[in-house]
Design goal:
304 residues; 10 strands; globular; binds iron/sulfur cluster
């Protein structure tokens, strides 16, 4: 595996609860790294030798700012190029945005990507994202915007209500999107999805690590647990074609996954991820360690 990037889900908790979220982020969601765990995984990442880039994301990583700051500092000190993905909720003014970003820049942060679309606000470019994009370059940070496009020919932003279905525009129907956004969407026969369209499951360049130690090929497809086994060992022993979930997905996509394991299922799905995610939900009892954690499948919510 030629792994160059480790994307650390610092927490599953988020101040938003977007319908298109792959990881079921929510204010009521559980799961966050401890400082000791974070330090351990960063040292393990260095041991691998091929990883050059660490990204902190979530959930919303800025909700645990001291943890984020220390993570950025250590990752940078260990020689990684360090980035963050955030929804920018903290950028309440340019002055405030600077206060949040400056310590991170001084700790070695190289880039920040901000989510901005109609799921995160009432305009494609949210005021918070505009402030981040204005301030970050002054601190020497590279910037990017992560946008799920507005539906073509669709509603005025003022008419937008969370929960209304979207079509087209790059929504991928996995995680919460596979539950909240599929109603009323055009569907195709389940045999129409013979390959995974988005992830290189055989030789991923980057992989996600969650606060429970799970390493995800794609959100909810686990190849090992870093709290139980060293990262270097997990990667060395990973045989993609032998993995009970990745194997069928690599050889024949979500169609192959359903064909391999499911006797009964719906006939039509919105996209490949919708079939993949739905099949995996049915398979969780059979492969509890590989299709985990509950947070990736709509569980883990507490105290709502
Ligand atoms: S088809 Fe499955 S493995 Fe591929 S990107 Fe979609 S959800 Fe992930």
């Amino acid at each position: 595996m030629n792994l160059t990037g480790l994307h650390i889900l610092l927490t599953y908790t988020c101040n938003y609860e977007c319908d298109h979220c792959f990881v079921w982020g929510s204010p009521w969601q559980t799961g966050v790294f401890t400082m000791a765990q974070l330090k351990d995984v960063l040292y393990q990442a260095r041991e691998v030798g091929t990883i050059t880039e660490i990204y902190f994301e979530g959930g919303e990583a800025f909700l645990y700012y001291p943890l984020l700051l220390e993570g950025v500092r250590l990752a940078s000190a260990l020689g990684f190029s360090v980035g963050i993905v955030s929804n920018g909720y903290w950028a309440t003014s340019e002055e405030d945005a600077c206060q949040w970003l400056k310590p991170l820049a001084q700790a070695g942060l190289k880039s920040i990507d901000v989510s901005s679309d109609l799921f995160h606000g009432k305009a494609l470019e949210t005021p918070e994202s505009q402030r981040v994009l204005a301030v970050a370059p002054m601190l020497g940070l590279a910037t990017g915007t992560i946008t799920v496009d507005a539906p073509a020919g669709a509603r005025d932003p003022d008419e937008w209500e969370p929960g209304l279905p979207l079509s087209g525009g790059g929504v991928m129907y996995r995680g919460r999107a596979a539950v909240e956004l599929v109603e009323g969407q055009p569907r195709q026969h389940w045999m129409s999805f013979p390959q995974c369209p988005y992830e290189n499951l055989e030789n991923p360049g980057r992989i996600h690590l969650d606060p429970f130690g799970n390493l995800h090929l794609c959100q909810g497809i686990v190849i090992g647990n870093m709290f139980n086994q060293p990262l270097k060992q997990i990667l060395a022993h990973f045989e993609p074609h032998q993995h009970p979930i990745a194997g069928p997905l690599i050889s024949s996509g979500p169609t192959g996954l359903a064909m391999r394991y499911l006797d009964q299922h719906e006939q039509e799905f919105v996209d490949a991820c919708h079939l993949c995610y739905t099949a995996r939900v049915h398979l969780r009892n059979r492969f509890p360690d590989l299709l985990a954690p509950d947070q990736m499948y709509g569980g883990g919510i507490q105290g709502r």
